[in-house]
Structures are given as structure tokens and as C-alpha cells.
Amino acid sequence: MQTADFDYDLPENLIAQTPLKERCSSRLMVMDKKTGAIEHKHFVDILDELKKGDVLVLNNTKVIPARLIGSKIDTQATIELLLLKEIKKDTWECLSRPFKRLHIGTKITFGHDLLVAEVKEKKEDGMVVVQFFYEGIFLELLDKLGEMPLPPYIHQKLEEKNRYQTVYAKNSGSAAAPTAGLHFTKELLEDIKKKGVIVTEITLHVGLGTFRPVEVQDIKSHKMHSEYYEMSKETADILNLANEENRRIIAVGTTSTRTLETIKTKYGIFKECSGNTDIFIYPGYEFKAIDGLITNFHLPKSTLLMLVSALSKREYILKAYEEAVKEKYRFFSFGDAMFIK
User: Which terminus of the chain has a smaller tally of CB atoms within 10 A, N or C?
Assistant: First the structure.
């Protein structure tokens, strides 16, 4: 299967640059994964689509201000780091720019030496491993010195930082938001629970895969970067009971999906665990964990579009996207939503 098989035409004016004033006022396309039939609704209507006994799985990761702009201590040259994954305490894998100016031992200062990074390893594709040196609390320094790493297709400044966080974000560590969750308000989640839907959480810290396009022709040659995940015993027990009782498990976002599928594939059941996943889901994949997916509209030729195509049929998904363009849905991170059921 070729990367070009997942291309579609998208007018640039449909790429949402800012979030809507009300989180749950976005539109919702509901699609039957078996027939491809679609309905046009609004996100608040997700309440009608969910049934008593369903399990809704949220990714509670929290985006950190992961974009740091500093300068080399020796030459004062400007260096940008995007923090992607903490390997061990104070040691991070980062995307760097300009990569060629960095060498093992290079020191970069941020905020007049409030934070100093030393390059410990140079990898491929702009990746470096750095160790940070500082006094105080690292996340507090990031809040002071870092910027929210918005995706490259968003060109407008975000007025409220919290709009690139879900209302249930709690575990810090992501370089990007799990954007399907941005549509939920606390009130809507309460209404969902009152209906008898069980809401539970996992964590997957979103990393480099979000920022990297598929550059190979044959999708099987694409390598996913790994991302850290964890699942609690409470969530595992909820999901295993849902399986036993044949109740639906609905993932909010591709990140929740990848976590659930990773664990179910590895262990055959859900269990308390943590680790790193580089699972790549594309058509032909047999889903083991989820029955439905709430997601946004994804970039052409992206691994996320390949994942949603695997849950239904590529032809159905591309037809739905064509309809979304025709109906002027808003696309990508701050865009509208889709429920594949």
C-alpha cells in the first residue's frame, strides 16, 4: 500500500487556525465503519451516540511548554529545542534547529543561564539528546522559559494557552495535545457519566510522530518513533470487564487507540503497565481493543489518516473526508470531530 493512497485535496482555508469559543460547539461527523454511511451533527450530540455501559477512554497527558529558544554559550548562535521524550531525569530527546551547529559537548543557555543544556548525543533527522542543568523545579522553569509547541500548520498565536490542553489533562510530558479531547468540557463529561457511560483514562505522551510526515512511498517502510504510555489497574479492570460483558470500548483520539491496541496486542488482556510503543496501524490491521473512535480530521498522507482508514475502509474514509471538504468542516488540531462507530 502506497502513501499516495491516503492523499486528498484540502483547501488551505479549511485548516482551523484558532479554537472555537466554546469547546463543544464544533461539528461532528458520525460515520458507520461497516457501511460508510455518514450523518452531520454537532459535538454535543456525542451524548446521543454513546450508550449506557459504553467505556470512553481519555488520554490524560498534559502538554508541556516544550519549545525552548536559547543560544550557544560559546558563539551566541540561536538554537531551538523541542522537547520530545524524557529518557531519564533531566535528560531529554529533542528535535533541534539548526542541527548542524550542534556537537557533542555543545552547551546552550536559556533565560540567562536559568537553564543550561549540554548535548550528549547526536542522532538522525535533527534529533539530539541533551542533559539539563538548573536550580529549582524543571517544570516551573519550562513554564517560565518555554513556549507551547503548536503544530506547523497553525500560523496564528494562541491567545489562551489552556485551549491547547484538554480539560482533563494532568500528567505532564507531551509535545502536542491529544486533540480529539479538546472538544470535551467538564459539563459534557459529567452528562456523559450521568447517562451511564464509564469514563476512564490512560496516558500516552505525544512525541515526534505528530510532527513527522510519512516520506516513504511504501507505508510498510515507515518507522514510527516510540512514545511513553501507562495504564492503571483501575482502568485495566474496567476495560477487561467491558470485554467480558461485550460492551463497547470507545477511544478518544488516536493516542488512546494506540495505547489500548499496544497493551491488548502485547498481553492479550488489559493490565496495569507502562512502556514505550511504536505501533503503526494501517489498513489490514485487526483491531483487538476498541470498537469505536472519536477523532479529528487528519493531514493527508499521515499515519493518523492511515489508522482511521484501518478502522473502517480507506475508500469510506476518503469519501467522508471529501464530504467534509464539501461541507466546509474545519480540519486538524483545532478543527471539527468525527465519530467512527
Answer: N
> What's the confidence (pLDDT) of residue 211?
62
Between CA 232 and CA 245 the distance in angstroms is: 20
pLDDT exceeds 70 at position 210? no
Residue 75 burial (10 A CB sphere; 0-12, 13-18, 19+): exposed
Q: Give 85-133 pLDDT, tens digit per residue.
A: 899 999 999 999 999 999 999 999 999 999 999 999 999 889 999 999 9
> Rounded to whole angstroms, how far apart are CA atoms 243 and 239?
6
Which residue intervals of the chain bear CATH 3.40.1780.10?
Answer: 3-63+161-340
DSSP at 98: S
CB 74 within 8 A of CB 109: no
Kind of pairing, strands 273-277 and 227-231? antiparallel
- Reply yes or no on domain 67-144 having CATH 2.40.160.20: no
pLDDT band at 225 (very low <50, low <70, confident <90, very high): confident
What pLDDT shows up at residue 64?
94
Count of Cβ atoms closer than 10 Å to residue 215 Cβ: 10
Q: Provide CATH 2.40.10.240 ranges for the chain.
A: 67-144
Whether the CB-CB separation of 212 and 187 falls below 8 Å is answered with no
Distance in angstroms (rounded) separating the CA atoms of residues 119 and 70 = 13
Please tell me the distance from the alpha carbon of residue 238 to that of residue 78, in angstroms, as a whole number: 49
As assigned by CATH, the class of the 3-63+161-340 domain is: alpha beta
